[in-house]
What we know:
The protein is α+β, with helices and mostly antiparallel strands.
Amino acid sequence: xxxxxxxxxxxxxxxxxxxxxxxxxxxxxxxxxxxxxxxxxxxxxxxxxx
Length: 50
């Protein structure tokens, strides 16, 4: 996401999808940080391939 430096960004809800990979784990960790900083709600879904 590209946001101007002076802009204020607020999130009320974040959705994170995970498949157990190291990349989705890193993304989920970032989502948790955003949720904590914004006092937002976190929705997580687990996706898997068969």
